[in-house]
Amino acid sequence: MNVSGIRRNIKNIAHNYTDAQVKVREATSNDPWGPPSSLMSEISDLTYNVVAFSEIMQMIWKRLNDHGKNYRHVYKALVLLDYLVKTGNEKVAQQCKENIFAIHTLRDFQYYEEGKDQGVHVREKSKALEALLKDDERLKNERIKALKARER
């Protein structure tokens, strides 16, 4: 385990985060790699538990509000949200539609690191997710496709 992993564990304990919240924090960490599909799958399964669902969504919305050097939190939260919209409880998509302004505002996300535009991925992912959420037919088809893929 690296230093950031140890720091994350200490924060998880200090803030008394639940198992579901810890999984979301791990999936949306600042580590320079994407969230593992096995972890996203676990989180997706947890969205069918009423208590875990609200804990997961609360942490995702919190991550989406990060900025600056925590741009990876935002991007990975969008990646996770995209996955959950397709494979998780239908309430995920419903809540996203109700809070679409939060996703829409990320179209203007800006962060530059060493002259490199790190916000571009957030802007692109938010546009794609918003388009999916606004197209009910496509959303339905994506859910069918993703759930079939998960069964394999």
TrEMBL record:
GO cellular component term of the entry, any: cytoplasm
Assigned keywords, A-Z: Cytoplasm, Phosphoprotein, Repeat
PROSITE patterns: ENTH
UniProt subcellular location: Cytoplasm
Main localisation: cytoplasm
Domain ENTH: 12-143
Family, per entry: Belongs to the epsin family.
PANTHER family: EPSIN/ENT-RELATED (PTHR12276), FI19443P1 (PTHR12276:SF115)
Name of this protein: ENTH domain-containing protein
Phylogenetic lineage: Eukaryota, Metazoa, Ecdysozoa, Arthropoda, Crustacea
